[in-house]
């Protein structure tokens, strides 16, 4: 079983990892010979420029994309060889642009998260009802349960989809840009929820994030990618350096300490160092 070093340098085993992955859409190869290990019971944020393979990797880890080569291992066995419902009772995936039928209500959407737990001999139960109610409460969507998904704002829809993933009640949660469409206050609410799910409920979370400062604040581990490869992985302070910002993001930036969280904070410089700073006139 693969392992990963935690923030103290201690090796901990991983329930979910990929080895020698070749990820492609038809003839278009996104990643070649890629290894990735998820830190069990930690929060991992995958960062990198657009098109570097972050979402593709997340899809492969969640069994939404079958690798052209290599394999993803879940609890010691290849994930591709396991029944989809069995995987879905362990790993919940929230893709970047989920789709739902027109007119579907929030409550019905969230209830779909319980499908992996049901069968012809086990239909809707009080356990399912409790899981849906708790998921709606955690995301603040109780009052919208009867509303149609397509009548909501972008931020409300995103929280409804997160509710569905939470109702699935899995140990591992894979979130592709969970703060998309959310204003800053709701971004913080969602990421506070991620932290609670990890710290109080022991859930392992992997999320793709574009905001580097929020990634550093909420994740135990950062994985920086570029061109389908892992450039650096480790604790936020280890990963976020001026050198990494230059080589991975083509960005001139300083790294300072977040005055609130004490985590690394990226402060970008101008795209050129010769342009004067323009300030608005006073008065």
UniProtKB/TrEMBL annotation:
Q: Which domain of life is it from?
A: Bacteria
Localisation per UniProt entry: Cell membrane
Question: Topology in the membrane?
Answer: Peripheral membrane protein
Q: What is this protein called?
A: ABC transporter ATP-binding protein
Source organism of this protein record:
Lipingzhangella rawalii
- Residues making up the signal peptide according to the UniProt record: none
| Listed GO MF terms | ATP binding
Q: Which InterPro entries match?
A: AAA+_ATPase (IPR003593), ABC_transporter-like_ATP-bd (IPR003439), ABC_transporter-like_CS (IPR017871), P-loop_NTPase (IPR027417), Siderophore_ABC-ATPase (IPR051535)
Entry keyword Membrane: yes
Q: What is its main location?
A: membrane
Mark the transmembrane ranges: none
Per its UniProt record, what SMART domains does this chain match? AAA
The entry's keywords: ATP-binding, Cell membrane, Ion transport, Iron, Iron transport, Membrane, Nucleotide-binding, Transport
List residues of the ABC transporter domain: 16-252
């Amino acid at each position: 079983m693969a392992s990963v070093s935690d923030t103290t340098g201690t090796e901990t085993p991983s329930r979910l990892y990929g080895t020698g992955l070749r990820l492609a859409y038809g003839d278009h190869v996104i990643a070649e010979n890629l290894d990735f290990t998820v830190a069990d019971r930690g929060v991992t944020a995958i960062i990198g420029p657009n098109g570097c393979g972050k979402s593709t990797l997340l899809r492969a880890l969640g069994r939404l994309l079958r690798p052209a080569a290599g394999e993803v291992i879940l609890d010691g066995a290849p994930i591709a060889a396991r029944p989809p419902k069995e995987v879905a009772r362990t790993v919940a995936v929230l893709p970047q642009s989920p789709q739902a039928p027109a007119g579907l209500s929030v409550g019905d959407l969230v209830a779909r998260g319980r499908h992996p737990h049901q069968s012809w001999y086990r239909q809707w139960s009080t356990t399912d009802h409790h899981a849906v109610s708790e998921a709606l409460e955690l995301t603040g969507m109780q009052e919208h349960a009867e509303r149609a998904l397509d009548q909501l704002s972008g931020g409300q829809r995103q929280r409804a989809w997160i509710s569905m993933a939470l109702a699935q009640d899995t140990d591992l949660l894979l979130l592709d840009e969970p703060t998309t469409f959310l204003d800053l206050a709701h971004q913080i609410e969602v990421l506070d929820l991620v932290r609670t799910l990890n710290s109080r409920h022991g859930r392992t979370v992997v999320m793709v994030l574009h905001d580097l400062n929020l990634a550093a604040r909420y994740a135990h581990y950062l994985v920086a990618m570029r061109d389908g490869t892992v450039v650096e992985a480790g604790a936020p302070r280890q990963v976020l350096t001026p050198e990494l910002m230059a080589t991975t993001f083509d960005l001139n930036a300083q790294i300072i300490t977040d005055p609130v969280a004490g985590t690394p904070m990226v402060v970008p410089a101008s795209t050129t160092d010769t342009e004067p700073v323009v300030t608005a006139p006073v008065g």
